[in-house]
Amino acid sequence: MPDPTLFAAVKDPANRPNPYPLYARLREAPVARQDDGTYVVTTHAALRALLFDPRISSEDLPSTSHPRTGNPFKDWIINPFKDHVRTKHRPFIFRDPPDHDVLRRHVMREFTPERIRAMHGRVDGLVADLLDRRRDARAIDLVDDFSYPLPVTVICELLGVPPEDEGRFHGWATQLATALEPDARQDEAALGRNIETFDAIAAYMQDLIKDKRRHPKDDLLTGLATREDPQAGRMGDYDLIATSILLLIAGHETTVNLITNGMLTLLRFPAQLERLRAEPEIAPRLIEELLRYEPPVHFRTRKALAEIELAGTTIPAGAPVVLLFASGSRDPARFADPDRFDPDREDNQHFGFGGSLHFCVGAPLARLEAEAALVALARRLRNPRLLDDPPPYRPGASLRGPEHLRLAIDGVSPPDA
Predict the structure, then answer these.
(1) Cα 175 to chain center, whole Å?
(2) What is the number of alpha carbons within 13 Å of residue 181 lying toward its C-beta?
(3) In CATH, what number does 6-408 get?
(4) Domain ranges within the chain, ordered by starting residue
């Protein structure tokens, strides 16, 4: 049996640069109980089985509970009401059917393939502009100079969020991303910071939604706020606020990681970087391999609603469950030579965007942005070299990616070079 402390090691920031040897050890048992009572699911087959199992719930966040302020009106009336609303109206990635299905249908009605395709030229233009700004540079931080501003600008334009407000929600997004980290859910101080942050971003979104209703525009948030679904009617305001926050944060946080992890991987495999430069048509399958090999999201948490027998292990009802997607995507029982980066890999059924009911709604947009970004970086950065390998990583183990990626370059070529 695997060491029951291995997932604690996965969460340790010291192992952020390379958690894959730990995943290999965890896969010695498809379902491994940890010392804290968590069950970690690691193999491709076991993960696929649970993704389609109705006994696994996404409603695993702790109930919202504002800390006491000493103000009786807030402590006994205002904050308990907020706690009830927030607990009941989670973002849809933390909801089960039928609520999840209704909210997702509202989003997919607006997040259409036509809307995404219409962004293609705009994404190309943003990529070109970001690189043009660094034309005479001899060093760049890929995260600060490129991987972050690209997707955050795209999601702001899609939603209709004023780009000048980016400075306000950057910190909010960073803080709320910790809700995916199991340890943060047990930390009273972290929970308090998340509640305070959610209050701030919820108030911002509430004002923005009111403005969209007064002054409708052709953006996704206006559509969610004003149009009615033929079956479900109009999305309620509490769900609308939670959904808009989710789309804003998830719409850029994971894509930052995808682009940055992608460039880091290409710099570690220079032959593939040269190939992408010469053959940009390989980009779609190269990105699928990146989603398998260095995904932006490594795991999601769930809760068992009933006792589940899986791969010789009994997961008891009520137990916390970790779906370690990045481990399943490197399972040698499913992928030949799984630790090799191979853009020509066939039948690449990775878990880079999760799966089943909760398959990432933004996957087409993330693919579009990553393809435009990596092709342009390969073709326009002259002689890029890593200044730090491994680079410094963001704190979280779930949303895994470099906090900074410093490169030395000999300049940036014109787009038509």
Answers:
(1) 14
(2) 23
(3) 1.10.630.10
(4) 6-408
